[in-house]
Amino acid sequence: MATEVGGFDDPSAEVLAEAASAFGLLASSARLHIVWALAQGESDVTGLAERVGGALPAVSQHLTKLKLAGLVRSRREGRRQVYFVDDPDVVTVVRLMVGQLTDRADRSDGSGLPAQGAGPRLRGFGA
Questions:
Q1: 44 with 80: CB under 8 angstroms?
Q2: Better pLDDT: 109 or 22
Q3: Spatial separation of the C-alpha atoms in residues 44 and 84, rounded to whole Å
Q4: How far is CA 96 from the centre of its chain?
């Protein structure tokens, strides 16, 4: 049962499970990088593998998982399969999170690397 707190109703268990599944897929730095790249523009698997520095089969497997979850779509152009993010909300969430962490790292010490003790680190992010 949804409870109202602070003017907002709690989401249903189904919505929470779907969100957790989407966030779980984006918890992989490789898949997050792929979604980030596709948020900048569509690409085929070869272009994505070159951009994210992954092996072609691994990038293809990540794309399959992202497609099954509905986070990425594709279309055929001749012999190529072109991938894209068709959900502006997914793009917004990824850009917001990555942008915030980038800004935090840039502010921390000017080197682009987080300063020692410069706030909490998120598991799965960073070197």
A1: yes
A2: 22
A3: 9
A4: 10
pLDDT tens per residue, range 57-71: 999 999 999 999 889
Distances (CA, A) of 36 to 19, 95, 117, 118, 126: 18, 7, 27, 24, 15
- Name the CA radius of gyration of the chain, rounded: 17
pTM of the shown model: 0.73
Q: What phi and psi, each to the nearest 5 degrees, are found at residue 77? A: -125, 95
pLDDT at 74: 97
> Six-digit token pair at 115?
């300063």
3-state secondary structure the chain: CCCEECCEECCCHHHHHHHHHHHHHHCCHHHHHHHHHHHHCCEEHHHHHHHHCCCHHHHHHHHHHHHHCCCCEEEEECCEEEEECCCHHHHHHHHHHHHHHHHHHHHHHCCCCCCCCCCCCCCCCCC
Domains (ranges, CATH) in the chain? 28-109 (1.10.10.10)
